[in-house]
Each structure stands twice: as C-alpha cells, then as structure tokens.
Amino acid sequence: MKKIIAILVFMIGVACCYAQPFPLDYSYVGYHMSQQPIPNADVKVYVEWHAGNQSSRIQKAIDYVASLKPDRKTGLRGAVLLGKGCYELSEPLRIQASGVVIRGTAKGETVLFKTGVDRGAVVYVEGKNNRIVTDTIHDNARKDDDVMIVRKSTQKWIDLMKCGNFGGGLDLGYWGWHPGEMDLEFTRKITGIVNGKPSFDAPLPISYDKDCMMLRYNWSGRIENSGIENITVESDYDKAYPKDEDHAWNGVYLANAINCWVRMVDFKHLAGSAVVIQRSGSQITVEDCKSLSPVSEIGGYRRRTFLTFGEKCLFQRLYSEHGINDFAAGYIAAGPNAFVQCDSYESLGFSGSVGSFASGLLFDDVNIDGNDIKLCNLGIEKYGTGWNSTNSTVYQSTASGIFADSLPDGTNNYVYGCWAQFCGTGFFDESNNHVKPWSLFASQLSKRLGRDVSGITRTLERNTEASSSPTVEQAQMMMANAKLPRITMHSWIDSAKFVANVSPTGTKNVDAIKIANKTAVAKHEYAIVNGKILVDGSLLVGGRHNSPWWSGRVKYSVFSKLPYAVTRFVPGMEMYGTTDRIDSVILNMKRDNNVIYSQNYGLWYDRRRDDHERVRRRDGDVWGPFYEQPFARSGKDTAWDGLSKYDLSRPNKWYFYRLGKFADSEADNGMLLMNQHYFQHNILEAGAHWVDCPWRTANNINNTGFPEPVPFTADKRIFMAGYFYDVNNSYLRELHRKYIYGVLDAFADKPNVIHSIGEEFTGPFNFVKFWLQTISEWEHEHNKKVFVSLAVNKDVQDSIMQDKELAKTVDIINIEQWFYNSRGLYAPKGGMNLAPRQALRNGKTGSVSFADVYRGVSECRNAWHDKAVMYYANNYTEMSWAVLMAGGSCPDLPVTDKQFLHSVAGMQPTFHKDNVYLINNEKKDAVAYIGTDKNTISISLSNGIYDIYQIDSKSGEMKKMKTGVTINGNYLLSFKGIYWLRKR
Known about the structure:
19% of the residues lie in helices and 30% in strands. By secondary structure, it is of the alpha/beta class. Strand 1, helix 2 and strand 2 (78-82) form a beta-alpha-beta unit. Helix 14 crosses helix 15 (765-782). It starts with a helix and ends with a strand. Residues 1-19 have low confidence and may be disordered.
C-alpha cells in the first residue's frame, strides 16, 4: 500500500491518474481517440482485376475519389474497391486526400503485389507537411485552440539524465544527447481554461513544467478519415537470395495524417515495417493485422514490424513472426501510444522503444516469443539511444525478459501482472500473476466513455482459473478443455468480421473514368561541342553538389543540417536528411544553382564505424543513416559489420535504381550526374576506412586476396592502394572489369551521366589505362558512347592524353588533383599511395588567383581542343569566371539569361593580357573580363552594331549599358568589370 501511495504522490501534475499504479490513462489513442468505431465508407469506384501492372489504374481510382466532395458528417469521400486477384504494382499507391479508402473484396484473395527494387512502401497515406506555428501561448490560451506542447531538452536535464556522454574516457559527445535533440512535441486541443490553466483533450505523458512551452498552430494539409482495409499487401523479392533487401520495405506509410486507419491487412515478405507511422501521424488505429515471412538481413533498422514515431496511436490485435522489433516506438515518439493484444512468434529482438525517450507507451496483453520488452537505458546502443522510454507500462504481458527502470529525473516505467525474467529499478507488481481487468486499455476506455466498448476493443480473454489442487471434477473438465484447440492471436485476428460493403454493384468502373493526358516533358539534348558541355545548345553553368560521405544522425534536429543525398538510406523515414525523395533533391539542386551531382558511395555503411575503431562488430545491429555501397549483400557468411558479406560481382539494385531515377529527373531538368566509380578514401589513411570496405577480403565472398589480418601501420593507418590498383593480378583485374561493366550497364541509356574514375583518385597510370580500356571495350560491345571524365594527377593525365587510343575514350579533363598557384604548379605524382590531403601536407601551396585558374584550364583546352575542361581544384567556387574565360565547361556562374548562355556556348578565348580577357563566338559576340583598374581598355572586335551589357559577377544580374553601338575594330571600355557585347 505504501508503494501505491508513493506512486500516486509522484504522479501529481501528470494529466490523468488512476488509483492503480499506472502513470496515465492510455485510452486516448486510436481513430478519434477510440471514441467511435472506424467508419465504413461507401464504394465509389471498382477496379476489376487485370493482368500486368495495375499501378496507374488503381491510382486513377484513388485520385478520382479524392476529387469527390467529402460527406459533411463523416468526412468520407468514398472507397476504392479492388476485386479478387493479385494486383501487380510497379509503383506505390498514394492516398493524399482526406476521406479516401482502399478496400479489398476479400483479404486473402485481394492482393497488392509490389514488384521492383524500390525500398519504400507499398501504400502511402500522406498529407502535406505544411504545419505553421502562429504564436506562442503564455496567458492567452483559448478554448478549442489547436496547440503544440513542446517539452524542451535542456543541457541541465541531459546532465541529470547522464546521457551527454556514454563514457569510455574519451570525448565521444557526438553520440550523446544534445540540447534540442530530445524535444517532445504533443499536439492537443484545449478543452477549457480552469484558474488560468488549460485542460487538454488527451493527457500528457509528462508533467507540464518550466521546460514546456505551448504554441498555436494550424495544419491545413494534414489528412484524415483515410485508410486501407480488408486486403493483403505483399512484396516480391529475389527468391535466390533469402536475405534480399532490394524490394518493398514497408507496407503502409502514414505521415501528416490524423484519424486514419489500417485494418484487417495481412503483410508478407517485407524487410522493414508492416505499418510505420511518422512523427506527424496522430490518432491512427492499426488493428487485426498480421506480418508474415519477412525477408531481409538480420540487423539494425530491419523488421521493426509495427512502428510508431507518432502520438495517440493504437495498435491492437496484431501478429508478427520473425520480427526483430515486433512492436516498437521510435525516437521521441510523443505518446501516449498503445500496443494491445499483440503476439509475436520467434522474435529476433526486443519490443519497446527503439529510439530515445519515447513517452507514454502501453504494452497491454503483449506476448513476445523468445525475446524481451525493454523500457530502460540502452546506453550507446543504436547511436546513443540512452533512456528509451518514460512513463510507460507493461501490463498482463509475457516476454523472455522485461526490463524496466526508474529514471534520474524522477519519472518511471511500470510492470504489472507480467510473466518474464525481470530486471530493473522501475515499478514491478503482481509479477508472475494474472490480474484483473484482463485489458488495461479496454478498462480505461470503458471507464472514460462510461459505456461498453467491446465493439472497439474485441478482447480475447484467457481463462486464468488454474487451481493447484483441483477436484476430480475440475481435473476432468480441464482435461476436456485441454483437448480443444487453443485460440491463438493469429486465429483471433482471422475471426474478425469485415462488415463494410464489398459489392461493386452500382459503382463506377475505373476504366470509365477519363483523365486528361499529361503534357510530355521535353527531352533535353546533351552534347560536347568544340570542347564545351552544352544542353540544348547552351552552355551548362552552375555549381556542383558532392554526395556526403558518411555524416548524419537519425535525429530530427540534425536532418536539416545534412547535405542532401541520393543513396543515403534510413529505413522507414522519407524526408530531408534521411531517405531523401528524388524530387526533393532536384528542388534543392535548383535552389542552390547546382547543375552537377557528384555521386560517390559511402565511406562506410554502418555508423558504428564513426568511432574509427578497427574491431569486428559483435552483431548486425547497424546504425543509420546508411550510406549504401554499389555492391549487393550475398546473404552468406558474416562481414565485419555483422551483416552478410558482399558479392562484388552483383550490383546493389536499389543503389543503381535510385541513381537511375535521379539521373532521369536531372535529365528532365537539364542537369548532370557525375558518377564516381571508386572511392579511394576507403583504401588510404585511417585504418577504419578499410575495415568495413566491401573489397576487403573478410567482407566479401569473392576472395579478393587482400591480406588478412589487415596490415595496419602502427595498428592504425592503412595503405592498401598498392594492392587495390594491381591490374597485373588477373583475378582482381576481372573483378574490377565486371564491376565497371555493371556501372556502365546501369547508366547505358542515361545521356546526362558522366563517368569518373573516383573521388580523391590519386592512383597509378596503369589502373587508369585499364579503366579507360574497359570502358572502350564496353562501348564497342554495346555500340554506345558515354561521357568519360579524367580526374587524375597531372603526370597520369598527360601520359593518358599522349596515348591516342586512350585519349579517344576521354571526353572531359577534370582539373582536381593539380593546380597552379602563387608558388607555381602543385602537381603531386600519381600512384604514390597518398591521399590528396596527405599529398597537400607534403607540398606547400600558395593562393590561387584568376590567372592561375585561367592558365590551367587554357593549357588543357589548347592541348586538347575537342575535350571539355572542368576545374574543381582549390578555390573553384570563386573562380567560375576564370573557367569561362579560359574556355572551360560547367563554370559555377550565377547567370541564368538564356540568350547569354546560348551566346557563350560557341565562344573561345581570343585574347588575354594584363588582366584583360576576351572570348568570342563565330557570330563575333564577345565577353570581356576587365580585371584591372586602368581608366581605359581597348579591345578588338569585328565590325558591327552591338548591344552592351554589364554583368554583376556575384549575382549574375545584367544591366544594359548601351544599345545599337557601332564598332569598327576597337572598342574602349572605361571600367573594371564583366561585359557582354552582343552583336546584332
């Protein structure tokens, strides 16, 4: 009794409290907070089964229903009814409007079968992320306000929680918690004001204190009353690889949604989550669903079967087999969130929170087969999770182990009436006992609503009467009952009756719906003409974005700080800084005036390697974000990161699918993809760079022959370039050849892709020669020509270009590993087993001027007239005008005037002296760069009438200075600047 009183005293200030030892009322979860059942929408469109890809037909039906007016009372627009059959989908389905439902005729006989290698979801229920915070509430709270309550994570609180650093005697604070990273966000409606204090429509799992702030918001784009029901969602996968991951990862993905649902859906062969609810999801019900036969590696971020990052979500009557985190909340899931009547089979990992500081979790009648439920401090695991949960309860549940702890800030986790091996400092009571009521959620909901709620909760209660000294009659009755088949959660789910209409009678057939033809996107023409990279006859200008190598954390406050990436992968999350959506990357490219995306694969896949240790990992619980490699996993043996070994002869289909899709989008927008075949950073400098590298012998099934144990220098550094670039090794040479062929095959029909040998490449002549010969062989075999960029050390570059046959394969000279500067020429030799920054430490360089860049570019242009020249060496972002005036390609100019870009496309350098530079085209248009303060400069032009513009070097803005000027031979310019002299 003293224990219960202590609990109650502690919970003063928490929004809702029972006379039982539970921190809050968890019943405010699910569709409309479980105050009403999920509605049954009228069927509006019928999609009869047809063979072949059905993505466009079903999406047309969804979009049609989305165009209908919603019912004023229910908010429903209607349901899309699918007939019996296996509907093949090459693209996912997207519900993007309120009141739209996807419904199957019969769960077991209506199948959405997702093909392809995309790792996204099969169905998206997703509104717009347009939430706007209008003001901060102090003493001006009003009834019916929609508010966001933010519980701030201050440094003081982090220090109290002892999560700023997870120990080890090193300054590893980047894995610890940081202020702002653990801010909890709760969305509520104010239901009243009592004594100046607001009350909310649902309780908070935390105390409203000085670390909280309240904000008004509106969210017009968040959708509601939409769902998917009575259907099977299945992913195709490569049957030859039982751990294949190049297929659909998620079944249903919900974001920017409230009061939506997933009911009576079976999921098969997914790699990630059957259902994943994002942080922007609230009051979602997922019920009577099963996840069967998942297909993936056994590792981190896989098989998080039913997963919520959101709040007030209800997961009830669910079954999961061979999941890793079967029933889970993610990073700072605000809560409350409830898992009720859920069973797993042969779980491969724990259920609970798989991220930091989820609050208000309920596990009610949850049975984890062969693994644990954890509400505790996970420490450094999963990239510094620390405390994974607070004010959470495990009730009437079973697991191999249940871990629950009290927290340093005075909050707690609770375990009541459970069966397991117990561990922790949290509140434990009635352990190894059955308790009443059977379901805490059902009891709390019934008490709150004051009525019977069995229609919503549909609880399977077990007989708990089991006397240790039964009478003869009782023993005989128990024996008879023992012969009856046990009702499993699997069968209980199947016993659910679907009562909504599944008849197509009187509804519109999807094939009768007419839609307007989409305007075809004009195709751009990419070419190198007279040593210039042109798009539709105009010079391509703009910046270059380099793919990030390895950085990032799966923290909301970090996402916006990360550079965008195409092959970065965070399972179950599709937003900036995680798995970036392709259209988002394109928009950011445009925003930044970037026209080239330089792609290299990740330095390492697993973020555990950020510690730069060289040890083998104990398991495959890898940490995201994942920077994908171009090679597929084999599904065999175990690499040093704990996942299966790579197969260097098998491309990572998702990696090249993403790049291919991105290249297509770039092509539609007049941009280039520069694909780096290799990433030299893996094989030099820090030993950790090599440890997880796919080419390392220990990490692949191809027996690359590199030495094991690894010959670390001083047990820290690595020098593998001599081994890696050895093309005299016939076996290794063939592996390289197959890989290069695979890369070329992946981009065979992409006209805007440039092939470059590798990021930071400083390798020897013989390897570059082999690389170019391999490309040439591929081109002849396929009767195709690809763009090839030579970005190597100057001695290697010059040797290649002196060989006529090798030079034929080269289209672009990329000045990146050498450059002129105030000290002369910086040009370290290739093949010296030094990374670029190591070479820079050995050779002193001076400042880089306009004249230095002009000299380097013009020397290459003069030596090889038909080759385009790029400059990406030191200070390249500041030297775009030098690149242009020297006849280079892809200068990072801010100019967008189409007539100017078409004009300069044909210009070549004609004069330079005393910081005056001139380029002309055949029409005799000219651009003059006057970099001197002399009062008057005379430049030579052809006779004619000109319009003269001055260009701002930083903004690209053009100012017309003179119109209709007659020039005969020479023209005097009186001011320093950049001028376009356009001949009429």
